[in-house]
Amino acid sequence: MVIGIGIDIVEIPRVERLLEKWGESFLRRVFLPGEIAYCREKKFPAPHLAARIAVKEAVLKSFGEGWTEKIGWKDILVRRSLKGQPRVELIGKGKDLQEEMGVETVLVTISHADSYSVAAAVLCGPPGGQRDTHRRAVPDSEV
Ligand SMILES: CC(C)(COP(=O)(O)OP(=O)(O)OC[C@H]1O[C@@H](n2cnc3c(N)ncnc32)[C@H](O)[C@@H]1OP(=O)(O)O)[C@@H](O)C(=O)NCCC(=O)NCCS
């Protein structure tokens, strides 16, 4: 069953500016080594970096979380299949959250155009599971 969905869009020029200003320290703060290596192989890394930021934020939204102590940028690893399909692996605190929420698989998809990269994420749990991040047992902030 679907436990949560999330979407995010990132401005590619903003990522270019962060890269120019902070360089390696920006990359190391946000991305894991395999993600950096993949983007560096590309002629224009910024759209791919922006896409990975979008994936991380989409995954965060799918959990119904913000950037809290529960999960950080580098707890979400963006990998890919042999054919290039993006895959997400939750590690560290991300893995703890995955277990807490009963998430079996995180599905993601990416696209980029001239100025924007977008990503969507779907959290999948076991068939007939009881929880989803959009309808919690105890409503957290229904205003
Ligand atoms: C998938 C494909 C249709 C992308 O279309 P596009 O309109 O050119 O590009 P978009 O900007 O919309 O999407 C790019 C993203 O598609 C995703 N993607 C690539 N291959 C994919 C696949 N087989 N299945 C699902 N998603 C794929 C990637 O996440 C990529 O972004 P990234 O490189 O930053 O990770 C195109 O790349 C394609 O036909 N690929 C075929 C698979 C292939 O030959 N892969 C080569 C590696 S062996």
Could you explain the architecture of this structure?
Helices cover 38% and strands 26% of the residues. With 143 residues, it is of the alpha+beta class. The chain has a single domain (2-124), classed as Ribosomal Protein L22, Chain A (Alpha-Beta Complex). The strands form two sheets. The protein has a three-stranded antiparallel beta sheet. A two-stranded antiparallel ribbon has the order 2-3. Helix 1 (12-30) packs across helix 3 (45-62) and helix 2 (33-41) runs antiparallel to helix 3. The longest helix has 19 residues, at 12-30. The mean pLDDT is 92. Bound molecules: coenzyme A (COA). Coenzyme A (COA) is lined by residues 48, 51, 80, 83-86, 110-112.
What would you say about this model in short?
This protein has 143 residues and is an alpha+beta fold. Helices cover 38% and strands 26% of the residues.
CATH architecture assignment: Alpha-Beta Complex
Measured distance between first and last alpha carbons: 27 Å
* Ligands, deduplicated: coenzyme A
Read across the widest sheet, the strand sequence of neighbours is: 1-5-4
Rounded Rg: 15 Å
CATH superfamily annotation: 4'-phosphopantetheinyl transferase domain
The CATH topology annotation reads as Ribosomal Protein L22, Chain A
Q: Total number of helical segments?
A: 4
| Count of distinct structural domains | 1
Structural class: alpha+beta
